[in-house]
Write a structure and sequence with these properties.
441 residues, Uridine Diphospho-n-acetylenolpyruvylglucosamine Reductase, domain 3, 6-stranded mixed β-sheet
Amino acid sequence: MSCDIMKEVEKFLNNLLNINDTIVVATSGGPDSMCLLSILNKLKDKYKLKLICAHVNHGLRSESENEKKFVENYCVINNIIFEYMKIDSYINAKFSESEGRKKRYTFFNELMNKYQAKYLMTAHHGDDLIETVMMRIVRGSNLKGYLGISRINNNIIRPLLTVSKKEILDYLKENNVEYVIDKSNEDEKYTRNRYRKHLLPFLKSEDENVHLKFLKYSEELNSYNEYVNRVIKSKIDNIYKDNKINIKELLKEDEFIVKKIIEYVIIEIQRDNLFNISDSQFKEILKLIKDNSNKQIDLANNYIARVSYNNLIIEKKNNINSYCYEFKDKLVINNKLIERIEKSDKKSNFILRINSEDIKLPLRVRTIKDGDKMQVKNLNGTKKVKDIFIDSKIDIKKRRDYPIVTDSNDNIIWIPGIKKSIFDKEINEKCDIILKYTEEE
């Protein structure tokens, strides 16, 4: 049996490896990773490989220090470079599987760069593939998610994906390879452990090689996914420019392609903080772009999707705090300058003339508030500031911190560069305050 695994893995690696390649091997010390490390160690001389064993202590179990010593000792005996990282803290002081994975792969990538390694190899096997696919089907995912785990993903290689857990244990026994056991793998509070304990035995009772059927399913789905990606890349330049998705061009496509383009953009804009949109969020986004409504939808990881004048924009949520400043002679806000000047012969929305007798000083500059209204010059009655922004085609993001000038009674005097109120005076009228607005690039 162990001979079969060796032949299977070496046959797969023979198409990838070159003489003198450097490989980082993710090694926990458990049966799967020790099986992979043992096989690579046997191939080391044949291919003149430089092996880097990467061991991570997640800082969750008391046994972790002994596991580190065990893996390190194996590396010393077999002349393998040993690299170690301990995770000392987590956000909110609580372990998160996704955060642990991110820290783990950051460490692996650092080692790849340090040693100029060609591949990172992990010990995911056929049973892992079954568990992953079934979990994602039950939870819900997208096309890429449903294919589970790939044997080759750029420079990440999983040589054991055609091998079952039973075959791994048989190999270890026949070759007298020691390993450690993580008792948390038996704890049914973890979703994956429940699938492993209850679902896998049933599937294997139907077919002991069912993992190969799942691998075929995964590879078939991957072919579809790669085809779709080629289609997306052929269309994306015409639809996605300057971090904006052109809604008119987007809606010319089939709804499936629309969703894949949105997913593509999400991956592009937040590669280090990856999230997927749910089906319900996609339906909300689809309604948003069809209605062409200037609203926004909250997504995961503090991102939003918003529509701005026939463009869909997906971006990090802008957590700008509201402000209110007392104006004296000069104020700079976000590269926007409001200053008091002695005189001007210009007439535009960038110049304001007021008589201090008509208002209550001091003047203030603040952000927009819900329900803001202004008595617009040359307009009979009031108008909502929000509608003024919309009419002036001010992007919803810019509206949040756009300066608004008021008096001390909170009467809106001026929206600089956009609209003036009834308090503005003509050049030939009495005024004792002249303000100028400048937008700096």
